[in-house]
Design goal:
alpha+beta; Type Iii Antifreeze Protein Isoform Hplc 12; 2 domains; seven-stranded antiparallel β-sheet; three-stranded antiparallel β-sheet; rod-shaped
């Protein structure tokens, strides 16, 4: 076998080998790719709707919105979904932009009470926070009050009677005036209503061994209120005149504006009149 024959046989073998490799690679690439399908599973989301117009700076209460459930696809991200908030409870969240009645409330429109800028952005022009001290008998307020709730501020002062005329006096309970022998009488008057709560903070627990008297005067926490300048000036004027305290506010007929001891204990007035001391 001459060199020419060997040369052609070598060339043929090389061509056949290259062709085989090419066809093998082509067969691999031409295999159909397995498609990955995402199963479309329906899921339930929570959405919130404004019951009335909401302005930036308002703090949401349950009367400002309503929650509804919707069925949607698991493959679609709905911007209205607030399911990340447990139960869709938006109570206390701050509105950061105007929301019209009937419009959806989305998370980018709100600021959480735990956000570091919450208190600052909650204040409007001429408003500032006021930390109201809470004593042990009113400890329940720290457990039941959250940001956005409405409270009413009351004052209890001594009531002094002169003849038939009842006057509100500032005499202390230990006063040596001629009225000391009479039964002390008090009147409770509402100073502010619908005051917005920004925050509530409880102090560390009481020390063991403290008696009931010391506990009754112990400050156990503070409730931060949103007040305007006029309210603050009024509060500074009267804060040493009597006992200030907070109560949950209500706009219904049960809301208390003023109450005296004669309203609670009318028998005291009856006894006094029978004795001829009017």
């Amino acid at each position: 076998m001459n060199h020419r024959t060997l040369f052609f046989l070598s060339i043929t073998a090389i061509v056949v080998g290259v062709t085989g490799i090419f066809l093998q690679q082509k067969g691999k690439t031409s295999e159909p790719k397995q498609q990955v399908t995402v199963e479309n599973v329906p899921r339930t989301i929570l959405v919130a709707e404004a019951i009335h117009n909401l302005q930036a700076g308002e703090i949401l209460s349950p009367q400002d919105y309503k929650i509804a459930t919707l069925k949607t696809s698991s493959t679609i991200s709905d911007p209205r979904d607030i399911s990340s908030i447990p139960g869709g409870n938006l109570r206390g969240y701050l509105v950061t932009e105007t929301i019209k009645k009937g419009s959806g409330i989305t998370l980018p429109m709100l600021l959480s009470p735990t956000h570091p800028d919450y208190a600052k952005r909650s204040l409007r022009v001429n408003e500032m926070p006021y930390a109201f001290p809470v004593s042990a008998p009113d400890d329940y307020l720290l457990s039941s009050t959250r940001a956005g709730d409405k409270l009413a501020l009351y004052i209890r002062i001594k009531e002094i009677e002169r003849g038939k005329t009842e006057m509100v006096g500032l005499a202390s309970e230990g006063s040596s005036s001629s009225y000391r022998a009479q039964t002390p009488k008090y009147v409770v008057t509402r100073i502010f209503e619908q005051v917005t709560v920004l925050d509530s903070k409880r102090f560390s627990s009481a020390k063991e061994g403290e008696n009931a008297y010391s506990m009754s005067n112990k400050i156990v926490g503070t409730i931060v209120l949103r007040l305007n300048q006029k309210q603050l000036a009024m509060l500074r004027t009267i804060e040493t005149s009597g006992q200030l305290f907070l109560l949950p506010d209500s706009q219904d007929k049960q809301s208390i504006k003023r109450i005296s001891m004669d309203d609670v204990l009318p028998q005291l007035r009856s006894i006094k009149e029978l004795r001829g001391s009017r």
